[in-house]
Amino acid sequence: MTNDSKINCLVVDDEPLAANLLKRHIDQFPQLHLVATCENAIEALNWFQKESIDLLFLDIQMPGIDGMKFARSLQHSPSIIFTTAYRDYAVESYELDVVDYLLKPITIERFFKSISKYLNQVENSESSQVSVEEAGMDILDQFMYVNTNRKFVKVLFNEVLYVESLKDYVSIYLPEQRIVTKDKISEFESKLPSYFLRIHRSYLVNTQKITAYTKHDIEIGEKEIPIGVSYKREVIEFLQRSGIK
Question: Is the pTM of this model over 0.85?
Answer without folding.
Answer: no
